[in-house]
Amino acid sequence: MSGMADRSRTNKADERFKRGITRHQLHAYLNVYNSHTGRFMGTMSNVSCYGFMLISPWPVMLDEEYEMQLHLPPLGDEENVLPFRAVARWCRADQTPGHFDVGFSISENQQVFAGLSIALKRYFSFMHPVDA
């Protein structure tokens, strides 16, 4: 019976850890930049293996391919930049005045982007550890 009690205690500790993740800082880690100019393009949201939505202060031209970079938290002393190309599929006004929601599909570096999508889903999910 103590094995079940230990498992229950571990599950509760895991749940407290997951609930303690600071989500309000996500925008600091999912900023997208233009690869050529280094200019901020917006904040990534609604990430999937094939694309994402960008919340941007500017509208973008549809059906255009953009070379982008996602600056992730550093790995040790090294910068952690994920370069990729994406095509703008749709653009609409966001609920926040002066911002736009832009749907992109990944056209280059899709495999690495898919790995990022899966890692983010695991990190921010509230799934039971056995189900994850």
From TrEMBL:
InterPro entries: PilZ_domain. It comes from the Bacteria. Residues 17-108 form the PilZ domain. This is PilZ domain-containing protein. It comes from Halopseudomonas pertucinogena. The lineage of its organism: Bacteria, Pseudomonadati, Pseudomonadota, Gammaproteobacteria, Pseudomonadales.
